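[Q] Does anyone have a clean structure-token version of this?
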Amino acid sequence: MLLGIVFAGWFALAQKASLTCSNIATAQTKPVSGPGATVAVLKVSTADDHSKDSHLCMADYQLVITQSSADKPTTVDLLSSDDEWGRGLAIQLSGFSHDGKRILGMFSEGIATPMQQVFEYNTDDGLVRSFDLPKLAAHLTTKKCLMNTQIIGTSENDAIVIQLRSGKYCAHTTRWLLNSQKGPLRRVPKRASVLELYGASSDNR
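[A] Here you go.
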């Protein structure tokens, strides 16, 4: 039987950071704590790509995970992109899934064709899944509305739950299930349970 929605995590604030892509620059989020004294930080590092035929900027996105039982942090390479110099880069570390087995977040780039991806890192098997949000939500909303997207939790069947905030570019607040890298987003059923993220900040509740 479907349970009532868990409201506590709806408006939890993701840890965020941003920078302009340039030579030798770095930005990272504040640490997010998970179960078992596990701590995660999302970072982006940029540099000139040193191409002979163009002047582009390389951006490398990494997740750095520290566990009390490990001698040194684990660095997970999430994505590398090579595109316009001076483009805006933004990262969000949303938190751990309720069971602590997945770390969720987002990164985006303000280029001619904006890039926005949701990522999911599985702490059990070390696999990374990424979701092309503009592509998966193209039938639902505008790109400007997508920039207000926030990961708010997971569903009972482990799908990622995202929320499109209401505002200037969005008609209304809507919540969607993200569980396929190819299929379209599906609306969260009205009485479905949404499990809040572990370690997410909730300053604006």
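[Q] Thanks! Anything notable?
[A] Confidence is low (pLDDT under 50) at residues 1-12.
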